[in-house]
Design brief:
Two copies of one chain form a homodimer.
Chain A (H helix, E strand, L loop, with lengths): L6 H12 L4 E11 L2 E9 L5 E2 L2 E2 L7 H13 L5 E8 L7 H8 L13 E8 L13 E8 L10 H14 L16 H12 L5 H10 L3 E7 L9 E5 L8
Parallel strand pairs in A: 1-6
Antiparallel strand pairs in A: 1-2, 1-4, 2-3, 2-7, 5-6, 8-9
InterPro entries (chains A, B): NUDIX_hydrolase-like_dom_sf (IPR015797), NUDIX_hydrolase_dom (IPR000086), WH-like_DNA-bd_sf (IPR036388), WH_DNA-bd_sf (IPR036390), WHD_NrtR (IPR054105)
Organism (chains A, B): Larkinella insperata
Protein name (chains A, B): NUDIX domain-containing protein
């Protein structure tokens, strides 16, 4: 496996020259579909091993722009809503030999860092707009329910857990409107809160609180195709779309 | 100023060999004294220029441990309560030439990074236990009221603002007990909340909410040396001292 011409070896050589060593970005891309919170994962070529999307920061690029670039490549979307949530900086985050063995990459000859510190970002995206795309190291990119994520490469299960905890804590500060289509019913919004929080909420209390927060606007239309007493449609008032 | 033997040049040479390039840690050390929130700042040798304490991460050291080491050196305290709050990753965070000119360091000959990404940590410390200590680049280390901080070197005014915003948002999740002596009165605790939030609170509501949170324990003693109707002393229940 000492193949300098392997695309992975060439990729890491290029990264080694143009990007900042010891530092990477990992992305937890959250979507919401059929009442379930989902995360976008990649399957590595010729394996059944999955990981989060990630990448490196160019020496001349801001960290936020690197994160945008990396997530854009996997989703097809630009100007994503991103939130930095944690730096994973342990000296030994995972067993490197075991991990690289699983994905069988010829990295022995690449001048690569012995260690990587990862800046975690999560993205809140509208599921239906994403066109999942693998990169050249991977052959499948698809959504997984957060409740059914397999054992991932690296420390990526841990990263997802920390992202989820962070999203839960910030639920009322984050523009979770990005996870929804423009219009939605109150029960749909409640289900989004419930799936993020991992617990059920009382419908009457939820309605009271969400209306009191004055973030929603009721439309004159109702959800089409539902039996009689169809629920009203709502949307977030426009200032809730503001990102940091 | 092409002096390889200047202690600063030797320091940066050593850092360049042993530490991770392009990456640093900046520390916002918060203390609370005489009803004021304070931050520990350093004055650079032979100048009237101030900055936050900071430092670099050794190649074999976790990011959290590097932050502990850096803050310990300036405060004399170990096992500090630290909270990572933001990565400052702009490609050009400040005018480098202007900044380095102000502190007059002979860095032309050092193989140093063109750019630094900084991981911001804040520390919550008990003011009275800190013994402020400058490093070899600085000649004074002292507390400043957050409301009276001068124009700082680098982008450190911005970093303090982001730390404060983060502390405000997380006020009820953070063990702010670390900012207080073991025992305190309710009005003292209220003043701490007010100074962090930058606004006054209604005493009766504050008392009701803080007691409802069930985080405090009332002692049988009262504050000594106060006129009659001396207020009771309280302390945080021990599980509130837990750090992440």
């Amino acid at each position: 496996m000492n193949d300098y011409n392997h695309p992975a070896a060439r990729y890491y050589q290029e990264v080694s020259e143009q990007c900042i060593h010891y530092l990477s970005i990992d992305g937890v891309i959250f979507g919401f579909h059929q009442n379930q919170l989902k995360v976008l994962l990649l399957r590595w070529k010729g394996t059944n091993e999955w990981s989060l999307p990630g990448g490196f920061i160019r020496k001349i690029e801001s960290v936020d722009l690197a994160a945008q670039r990396i997530m854009q490549e996997r989703t097809g979307l630009d100007a994503l809503y991103l939130q930095q949530f944690h730096v994973f900086g342990e000296a030994e985050r995972y067993n490197q030999e075991e991990t690289w063995g699983k994905i069988n990459l010829p990295l022995q000859n690449v001048n690569w860092s012995a260690r990587t510190i990862s800046i975690g970002y999560y993205a809140l995206v509208e599921y239906s707009r994403v066109v999942p795309a693998p990169d050249f190291l991977t052959e499948e990119c698809r959504w997984w329910n957060v409740e059914a994520i397999p054992a991932l490469l690296f420390d990526h299960n841990h990263i997802i857990q920390v992202a989820l905890q962070s999203l839960r804590k910030q639920l009322n500060d984050q523009p979770i409107s990005h996870l929804l289509p423009e219009t939605f019913t109150i029960p749909e919004l409640q289900r989004l809160y419930e799936t993020i929080l991992g617990s059920t909420l009382d419908a009457r209390n939820f309605y009271k609180k969400i209306m009191a927060s004055d973030r929603l606007e009721r439309l004159s239309e109702r959800r089409a195709g539902t039996p009689h007493k169809a629920p009203f449609l709502y949307r977030f008032k426009s200032d809730n779309f503001t990102t940091e």
